[in-house]
Amino acid sequence: MRNQSTTLKEYLFDYLDWLELEKGLSSKSQENYSKFLKRFFEFLTVNNLDELKPQDLTKDHIWEYRLFLSRKYKQKSKDRLKRSTQNHYLVALRSFLSFFVEKDIHSLPPDKVKIPKNKEEKTVNFLTIEQVERLLQAPDTSEPAGLRDRTILEVFFSTGLRVAELVALNWEQITINPDITDLEIGIIGKGGHPRTVFFSERCVNWLKQYLRTRKDNEKALFVNYGGRSPLTRLTIRSIERIVKYHALSAGLPLNTTCHTLRHSFATDLLMKGVDLRVVQEFLGHRNIATTQVYTHVTRPHLREIHRKLHGSKI
């Protein structure tokens, strides 16, 4: 480890190693923490504090950094950073200070980095069942690419997968034979955490149709038909474009995304009375508070059910 003359910036790679070895974070998570922490390093540079050492960090520096974030404009849109985005940067800084604590490096305690509450209620964009059906029927399934796209959309709504999790699916994970009507598989989700996902009977039927058209050796479940030979795995950006294209074709809201389908999956389950903690398991949320955002959406529906079933006179 380094010594007392080491600056804050010089600890970055040691910190990333700590995230990997001690916290078990994936390379993608490490990349995000690095990106967020580099905003703090940018603040140090702007204020001629490049040589600041851990032991010299003060509460005043944290306060100035919060002001910096609050007044910082995005490079492209020139809008102020949202409070939720500012909090991401502060969480990364707090994590950085936790690294110093575990390594017995004297610095400001992590709890001195206050994370303001986000007063803006998180918006959950989801589709109604009627809108989901319109989206599912948008692809032209007489063409290989359209059949693939329909299958992608069916998998999203059946499983609630994140787009990165769907991209990572391999053909070998999907065991399809004439006797199978539904399917469950294990995946490694966000943060390297395993969970089970379930494919409905309808989704399995579309998977069967799609896989019957595959005559290649590419291990990816979903491949690019853009004239490439051999076929290659679809990227996250490609699948985002596919969903956007069919959403527009179906006349759905412009803000319909892959994550909208994940929201729609969760909302549909809650509307049908599935327990919140079961939905948490389906989505792979580590914290129930993350899943509770959906209660803002389903509460009016549940209130109406209560009024109809329990509101009459005895």
From TrEMBL:
Top-level taxon: Bacteria
Pfam family membership, one: Phage_integrase
InterPro entries tied to this protein: CB (IPR044068), DNA_brk_join_enz (IPR011010), Integrase-like_cat_sf (IPR013762), Integrase_catalytic (IPR002104), Integrase_recombinase_N (IPR010998), Integrase_SAM-like_N (IPR004107), Tyrosine_recombinase_XerCD (IPR050090)
Classification via SUPFAM superfamilies: DNA breaking-rejoining enzymes
Residues annotated as domain Core-binding (CB): 6-101
Gene Ontology MF terms: DNA binding
Keyword list, A-Z: DNA integration, DNA recombination, DNA-binding
Family per similarity comment: Belongs to the 'phage' integrase family.
Protein name per UniProt: Tyrosine recombinase XerC
Organism: Candidatus Daviesbacteria bacterium GW2011_GWF2_38_6
